[in-house]
Amino acid sequence: GKLVGRFYDENGAPTEALRQAEAAIEEAQKFKAESEQRKQQFPPCNSEWSSAKGSRFWCSRQSGGVNRDWTGVPRKLYQPGSRGSHCVCVRTTGAPWGQPASTEHSDRGDLDNPHLEEYDGCHPLSEQCVLT
C-alpha cells in the first residue's frame, strides 16, 4: 500500500513532490560519486601549522586517506563554484587522469590541469612545501 499525501495521490501515483525528491537524491548520489573520483585523482595533502615554522604541506602514498602507488606534489586546487583553494597531491608522471597512455601526452600526470596552482616559493617537483 501507499499512503495518500505528499508523495502519492489517491490513485497511488507518484506526485511532483516525490519526483523532485527522487531527482534530489539522484543528484546527491552523483555529486558524492564525483567527489570520490576527484579525491582519487587529487588526494588531500598532509598539513601542519606552528607559529614557529608556519605551514607545511606534504604528500605521501597514503595522504588524504587514499592509498596509491604514487606520492605526488602539493598544489592548490580551485574548484569551479567554490571560493578559495585547498591543498591536493598531484601525479607528476604518466597520462592525465582518465586518459590512456599515449605519445600525445607529455608524461606530466595531472600537473597541467587548469584548476591547479603551484605554491609560491616551493620547488615545483618537491613532495613538501613550507610556507612561513
Number of domains: 2
Write down the Rg. 21 Å
Mean pLDDT: 89
- Spatial strand order of the main sheet: 1-2-6
If helices are DSSP runs of H or I spanning 4 or more residues, what is the number of helices? 1
Distance between the ends: 65 Å
Low-confidence stretches: none
Describe what you observe in this structure.
This protein is 20% helix and 20% strand. It is α+β, with helices and mostly antiparallel strands. It folds into 2 domains: 1-41; 42-131, no CATH class. A 3-stranded antiparallel sheet has the order 1-2-6, with no helix packed on it. The radius of gyration is 21 Å and the shape is elongated.
Condensed summary:
This protein has 132 residues and is an alpha+beta fold. 20% of the residues lie in helices and 20% in strands.
Features:
alpha+beta, 2 domains, Neuferricin, 132 residues, 3-stranded antiparallel β-sheet, single chain
Question: What's the layout of helices and strands?
Answer:
Blueprint: H1 16-41, E1 46-50, E2 54-58, E3 73-77, E4 86-90, E5 116-117, E6 128-131
Antiparallel strand pairs: 1-2, 2-6, 3-4, 3-5
